[in-house]
Amino acid sequence: MDEIMDEIRDGSPTYDIVEDIDALRAALAAHGITLPSLGVDPLTFAGWTKHPPLVALGNCTVVTARRLTEALRAAAGG
């Protein structure tokens, strides 16, 4: 994570946002969570210059939101 933040601060991100999204999708799937519209935000991707595009987490059902909350709380030790 620190490596990515350093790259962003330097203005020379060398990561592939698609790989990052795939990694997030896999991590969520490991907890039984699917965000159907997870992807690259097209507006920020089209204008990508110095700042990397945003990841669009999208909409989800209340059940998915609860599962995500449970997974994050468990990861935080609470």
Describe the model.
By secondary structure, the chain is mainly alpha-helical. The two termini are 22 Å apart. It has a two-stranded antiparallel ribbon. It is 53% helix and 5% strand. It is built from 4 helices and 2 strands, in the order H-H-E-H-E-H.
Model regions low in confidence, pLDDT < 50 over at least 5 residues: none
Distance between the termini: 22 Å
Strand order of the largest sheet: 1-2
Characterize the largest beta sheet: strand count, sense, and whether it forms a barrel.
Answer: 2 strands, antiparallel
β-strand percent reads: 5-15%
Number of helices: 4
**What is the helix/strand order?**
HHEHEH
Based on Cα principal axes, name the global outline.
elongated
Gyration radius, in Å? 14 Å
On the 0-100 scale, what is the average pLDDT? 82
SS-derived structural category: mainly alpha
Number of strands: 2
Q: What share of residues is helical?
A: 40-55%
Please give the structural blueprint.
Blueprint: H1 2-10, H2 17-29, E1 39-40, H3 42-46, E2 55-56, H4 62-75
Antiparallel strand pairs: 1-2
